[in-house]
Amino acid sequence: MRAVAAATAAPLLILGCSSAGDVPATAADSVTISDQWAKAADSGMSAAFGELHNAGDREVTVVAASSPVSATVELHEVATDSGGTPFMRPRAGGFVIPARGELSLVPGGEHIMFIGLHGALRTGTDAPITLTFSDGSATTFTAQVRDFSGNQEDYRPDGGAQPPAHSD
Ligand SMILES: [Cu+2]
To answer: Rounded to two decimals, what is the model's pTM?
Structure first.
């Protein structure tokens, strides 16, 4: 499909592509997702998960996400406060997928966070999600909505006001 698109597109698109050969041109070309799903919710917040695969020879970074299902979408991680309580916060620098590697987005770990749902996320429906990479490329996939009762971590958008003490 890419070959056909390149052949039929105007020469403008060829500018800057020099001799890339069959090396993926963008992060979006290298990344696929599998087993993606989102947590059913009536309102407020929810989250999406899945397995991100990077077929390229270079590490790629997801820097932003968006979806029509919520006002805001953030890239989150789960940390533990000094009292041992898990909480989630935006992941500084985004999600890094190693070269020829995977990144698992799982409850209790890194995840895509929906904040301010426009409506209920109902089991069996699909939630489209667009990921934007550090090179400006983007990829869109759909996550199937499922029932899930876990992942009720506390959200601390300030990144956690009380970082864990360094001495124990
Ligand atoms: Cu979150």
So the answer is: 0.78
